[in-house]
Structure formats: structure tokens, C-alpha cells
Design a protein that fits this description.
single chain, Recoverin, domain 1, 80% helix, rod-shaped
Length: 381
Amino acid sequence: MSAFDAKSDMEKLSHINALPYKEQAIWFLNAFWSQGPKFGEDAAAREDVWTFHKTSVKLDKANGEAGNELNEFDAHRLIEKCDSALTVQKMREVLKEIDVDFNKMVSLSEFMIYKFGIDWTLLVNAPQGCDMGAINEAQAGLDNANKMMQVAIAAAEKAKDDHVASKLAEERSKEEEVNSAKAAEESKKMEIVLAEAKEQAEGALKELQEQEAAFKKKLDDLEATSTDDSLGIVKRNKAKAELAMAKAEDPMPLRMAKIHQEAAVRKVTKATVKAGAATAAAETAAKHAVEARINSEKAAVEASAAAKAAEAAIPDAEKAFADAEAILEEVKQKNSGSGEGNLWYIDRELEEAKRYLPKSKFAAAQAAAAAAKQQAASPMK
């Protein structure tokens, strides 16, 4: 007799209640596979056990699959979801009734004791013996298939994301190339404006120098005339008067030349600043265009690699599920005695996981991977 067999029925129940929801469900199926609810003959009842398990997991926000019992509020919700015919008052009475171990919590086993109307002492004493080695092998096959499926889904999602990223990177690269071309064109325009401004400044300076030279010559001539003793006094005095007037105020041509020269200098200064800014902007835009092109090419490579990984992962996952099914069928044929609940649960989880195969996520994933590969293989224009 095992240590478990030697325990009292209440201790055994406490042990079962402490198991995770899934293991409680399996224990219940094993116990009543051929007696009581006779789950072996009632597919709908087996599906109910699956639903009760999954509903409990969803309601147990704190523990999820690792949980084993619900508080009064969540147990109330479980009953409400799975037995909507009950009134609020009746549910309160039921909650008190099904808390067999009186800890103010409701385990999945306690809920199913109420739901299927069975004697809980039969549950705790029902045989669970089976070829656990074979069952563990089947479970390992399922776990591997699930793992391979998650790898495949992740690879497919990455292929899809990388494909989108590659397209965005290519569009960004094209935008930066356009921006670079515009900046280069603007820089050329500013260089032309600067060259014109410098040319005008040179012309204005030349005009100023010519006017200054002409004015100086005029002053020198008047100075020479006013001091030339060979000339008459009237002529000398007239030259002195004109010289004084010329020195008192710049003549109109010289004043205009100075104005033109100052304006030209301001224009050159302004054009120099704009040309410098345009050149810097062009250099920055060219740098961004190069970086965007590199990023685009990198994104295309990553998309291609992700597509290949997805293409490889998806059939690997499908094969893992096929292998898991083969192992399960072999274990079913070899299994004798109880433990049918374990096998059914593995089979049910296998079917649940297979819902993610080609009909849904994998089909879209395969399309995304193919598109990513085609995009990556196409030379960017």
C-alpha cells in the first residue's frame, strides 16, 4: 500500500485540490472514464471538463495554469459561466455545498464534484495507475510540437515584420535620396547667387575705385592750378574756391559709388551665409541618403533571412505534430488499464495546438515569408 493509499479521504482530497487545474481535470477523467459520468463514452462531457479547466485558468488572473482553486468571487463567476440556470441565491448555496474541504476556496475538482453529481470519496480513491513512461513520452512529443509551433509562429511573424520594415526602409531611402537631390540643387542655386553677388561687389568696388581716382585727380588738378604762379590771380582764386567746395562734400558720382559698394558687400555677406547653410544641408542630406540606403539594404537582407527561417520552421512544426500524433497513437495501442484521461488530454491539447497550423496563422505566415523573400531578392531601384 502506497503512502497515498494510507491517507484519509479528506487528506487525499486536499492533495488532489492542490494539483494544478489541468492535473485535477486529468485525475477526474481517469477516475470516471468507465464509471459515473463515463467520460470514455461521452465526448461532450469530456469537452465540458476541458472547458471547466480553461475557464478556471482564465478566471485565475494571479496564477493561470499554475493555479488550483478560485476565491469565492471567481468561483461564483465559474458557476455563472458554466451553469447559467442557477439563481444568485442558489449559487450562494452551491458555493457552500461544493467547498468540500471548507477552506472558503473552490478547486476545479470540487466544482466538478458538484457539476457531475458524484461521490467525492469515489474520486479520491479511484485508481490512476497507467504506463506513465509511455504517457510521458506522448506528452514530450506534444511539448516538442508546441515548442516547434511557437518557433515557427515567431519566425513567421518576424518574417512579416521584417518585410514591412524592409519596405519602409526602402521608401525612407528613396525619400532621403530625393531630399539629397533637392538640397544639392538648392546648394548650386546659392552658389550661383553668391557668385553673382561677388561679381556685383567687384563691379561696385571697381566703380568706387574709379570714382575715387577721378575725384583725387580733380583735387590734385585744382590744387595745382590754385598754386600755379604762372596763372592769373582770378584763375588761381577760382581754383581755390572749387577745391574748398570739393573737399567740403563728396561729389554725387562718388557718393553713389560708395552706396553701391556697401550694398554689394551686404549682399555678398548674406549670400555667403545662405550658400554655407545650403552646402551644409546638402552634405547632411547626402549623408542621410547614404545611411538610409545602407539601412534599406540591411533590412532587405534581414527580411530575406527571416523569410528563409520561417520557410524552414513551418514544415518542421508540421512534422513535429505528425510525429507527436504517431507517438500518441502508439501509446494508445500499448496502454492498458486506467490512465485514459491522460491520453485524451494529450490528444485534446494536440488538436487545440493544430488549430494554429496552415489554416490560420501559418497560411498568412507562409505568404508573408514568401513576400519578404521576393522583396529581398528584388534589386532596389
